[in-house]
Amino acid sequence: MEFGLWEKYYKEILDDFGFSRSGDEESAKLLDEILSTEGCLTLDDLSQIVGFSDKFIVFGAGPSLKEHIIMLKENYDLKDYVLVSADGATTAMIEERISPDIVATDLDGNIDDILLANIRGANIVIHAHGDNIDRIASLTPFFNSVLGTTQAQPIGNLYNFGGFTDGDRAIFLAVALGASEIILAGMDFGDIVTQYSRPNLPSKTAEADDFKKKKLMYAEKFTNWIKENEPVEIINLIE
Predict the structure, then answer these.
(1) What pTM does this model have?
(2) How confident is the model at residue 133, as a pLDDT?
(3) Closest to 162 (Cα-Cα) out of 234, 229, 210
């Protein structure tokens, strides 16, 4: 999605959630400064790294995630796919001894597991927004093979492929990397959250609060936009 089109949706999100555009821009500027010092990937770099396949699996942190991972392990040759985990879904993949090729994260998942995935070869796509400035500052330097994204105007080393949550941004990223087929695992878009998406949740699952439900509505909306507007086959395992 081109930024000119994305900006229309972005302004809607800012108004709907009461987010600060200046906060997003401040976080993006900080991430760009860190990546300028520490080094980072370009989209072309990442495209070459995952160029072994144009078939992707994007793992979200919904309640169906573990079931889908087990089914995929039993019925698919995962080496034929670029595996992209959305933030907290990384934990479930590591539990099942699967290493993602890419982790799309705003750094609020289980950081130890994301770091472990990085050590095992995962490329980390770090997203800057107004609510994670402190995490951008304290955690970004610990990762290598990093590509940076923002939901505001892209600057410097940062990209904006479209998308709002880790899950649908991961799908937009796969499109930008030339995916012809994207399988969605653990992408429920429902009213239930898991400990994979909320590590501090006291139980394995719980009903989503209104804020999370609204975010999931946008995630589903943007996923449907991709289905309708991009030359890629989307296969959601929950359907």
Answers:
(1) 0.96
(2) 97
(3) 229
